[in-house]
Design brief:
By secondary structure, this protein is α/β, with parallel strands linked by helices. The protein is built from 7 helices and 10 strands. It has one domain (about 1-225): 3-Layer(aba) Sandwich (Rossmann fold). It is globular, with a radius of gyration of 17 Å. The mean pLDDT is about 90.
Length: about 230
């Protein structure tokens, strides 16, 4: 089942004599349950693509459809609601609220919609990520790896159609980086979560089942590894 489709997506910044084309005709299809790495050097367009897929930014041309919704038809308020409910975002900076416990940080997306969490699913997520015993801790009381796990749990709590991870190991040492990638793989396998992992690191990309390589705003490789 197709969960994401990009058709001729272009993104051009600036105007006049020196416009910059960040994305140049991206055509992409991702099925539900896939774990895909978007690999590229700095300036290849991978972060721009992530922002467009997450409805944080809009393409200059082309169309993006996520879980049956054409993102171009959403206004700013609708895009924000869609992002909260349908797209999980994980960055290298954890963006946790320092005055809230891990539990409240995880449940924040649901609290914004005044929705009650599913206790069984919440328990499954925090146990899968190994933070069931850290729920009453503040972010300052957690290690970097633990904070990133809380951020991943927060991104999963709404059962999003798509989880977008932008260099999620960028601030972590080798041990914690490996653990976070393992957590993403576990989420993909146990929770059937569709994941797009943005990275410049080929070793990390090799952990995914499919690698899409970007160069100068274009897809130059699409390898299915398993």
């Amino acid at each position: 089942m197709e969960i994401l489709k990009c058709e001729g997506v272009r993104k051009v910044y600036g105007s006049g004599n020196v416009p910059v084309t960040a994305l140049d005709g991206i055509n992409l299809s991702v099925d539900k349950g896939e774990f895909v790495a978007i690999l590229g050097a700095s300036g290849s367009g991978k972060s721009t693509l992530l922002h467009i897929l997450g409805s944080v930014d809009s393409p200059t041309d082309g169309k993006v459809i996520v879980d049956g919704t054409d993102l171009s038809r959403l206004n700013r308020t609708q895009a924000a609601i869609f992002r909260r409910r349908k797209v999980g975002l994980v960055y290298q900076f954890y963006n946790l609220i320092p005055t809230l416990t891990a539990r409240k940080n995880i449940l924040m997306p649901l609290a914004l919609d005044k929705k009650t969490p599913n206790p069984e699913y919440f328990e499954k997520v925090v146990r899968s990520l190994g933070i069931a015993d850290k729920l009453d801790a503040l972010p300052s009381q957690l290690s970097g790896g633990q904070q990133q796990r809380v951020a991943i749990a927060r991104s999963l709590i709404y059962r999003p159609a798509l989880l977008l991870a932008d260099e999620p190991t960028g601030n972590l040492d080798q041990k914690n980086s490996g653990e976070v990638i393992d957590m993403l793989k576990l989420s993909n396998r146990n929770l059937e979560q569709t994941i797009l992992l943005i990275t410049h690191d080929e070793k990390i990309a090799l952990e995914a089942e499919r690698i899409i390589t970007l160069e100068d705003g274009r897809i130059v490789g699409d390898e299915r590894r398993r």
